[in-house]
Amino acid sequence: MSDNARAHHRPEADPFTERTPRVVAARHLTRRQGRDKAGRFLVEGAQAVREALAWKNGEVHELFVTATAAQRNAELLQTASNQGIRISEVTDKAADSLSETVTPQGIVAVCDAVPQPLDRALQGTPRLVAVLYGVSDPGNAGTVTRVADAAGADAVIFAGDTVDPHNGKCVRASTGSLFHLPIVRSRDADEVFAACRQAGLRLVAADGYAKQDLVEASSQGELSRPTAWVFGSEAHGLPDDVVAKLDTSLKVPLYGAAESLNLATAAAVCLYASARDQRN
């Protein structure tokens, strides 16, 4: 660790253990109730922490790092130090207690919660938005967030009874995209749909049972319009009553023998189809 980084490193000689009060407090953030109460969450791994340090809409409050991880990530710690962020060395066991992975990386950041108000996320003239409705698998939700970011979407909205975007697996699956575009969490799906319409977005259900498919919609110019794609859970898709509230529904055509696509793959196809047509 450089001299500058040590300037923001706590002065105590011994690293924090899993029983140190600040580590115990951070461990509460591995649970949704603790995250909601504190308005903060944990980001694990060098790449995700690097993205958090570059984030413009929130603050990184502290870095917990093992001696080995500090040696491996000297440049990252220097960046954190230059930002005045507290750097706390912890034991391997303490780092493990903050990790939700099988092979902890030894570096964890405490960050502000990412969600923005719905109206702020949809301000201006959004062209492409991903809405996750009732998605319970955090890996899928995080991957769709990453896909939406890659496709140039303007926002990702977690609507209704959907997994917490701060869930550790969701954060890891997003690979930093959580910090790149507005994230919204709203339990009121009707409010989300109304806000999308008010922003000029056409609400399109991704529905494997739809009569029309993406290719047909594209040929008719439908996908070049500002669109909010609404994706349901992998197990059950979108309920009929939700589909009925939307403007239309489209399916991904299946040309082979596969019965269906998983949620993240279907979302990638849908979002990129819109992104392509909008750019053309």
From TrEMBL:
* Entry similarity comment: Belongs to the class IV-like SAM-binding methyltransferase superfamily. RNA methyltransferase TrmH family.
Q: Name one GO biological process term.
A: methylation
Classification from the root reads: Bacteria, Bacillati, Actinomycetota, Actinomycetes, Pseudonocardiales
- Protein name, per record: RNA methyltransferase
Q: Which UniProt keywords apply?
A: Methyltransferase, Transferase
Q: Which SUPFAM superfamilies does the UniProt record give?
A: alpha/beta knot, L30e-like
Q: Which Pfam families match?
A: SpoU_methylase, SpoU_sub_bind
Renumbered to this chain, the signal peptide range is none
Which CDD domains does the record associate with it? SpoU-like_rRNA-MTase
Q: Which GO terms describe its molecular function?
A: methyltransferase activity
Q: Where is the RNA 2-O ribose methyltransferase substrate binding domain?
A: 42-117
Lineage top rank: taxon: Bacteria
